[in-house]
Amino acid sequence: MAFCCFFNDIVFNTLASCISGKAAMKEVVAVVKPYLAEKVLEGLSRAPLEALTVREVKGYGRQKSYLDDYGDSEYSTAFLPKVEIAMWVDDARVDEIVRKIVAVARTGRMGDGKIFVMPVSSFESIVELASENATAS
Questions:
Q1: Mean pLDDT of 69-94
Q2: Nearest by Cα to 105 from 117, 116, 114
Q3: Do β-strands 113-120 and 25-32 pair in parallel, antiparallel, or remain unpaired?
Q4: Angle (CA) 25 8 33, round 5°
Q5: Domains and CATH numbers, the chain
């Protein structure tokens, strides 16, 4: 992945601060074109995220019948390559995060991607659960 080095620089372990307060959170999942993923991550580098993950994925949306537009590429008759960026955000900051993603990822062409916003009903830190189990034994 071209953006692995940059991803490691993103503040990733601030989830503990949110877990301790058990604040209301949402999961924001952005599915973007691969060549825009690094720009999206750069745009989010100073954003108030609690945690973030990145995955290379394949799929299609409304452009199902337009896959041939990719010509001779290996994806011309299969799924298109995308990058999925999942973020966990405080409820009050969701609109700000979505605006930042759209500002960077929107080209105005079909296949720009999708943004999903979902509630997070509960979450636990594996480290905290392990310490609780150790002290209980």
A1: 78
A2: 114
A3: antiparallel
A4: 75
A5: 4-121 (3.30.70.120)
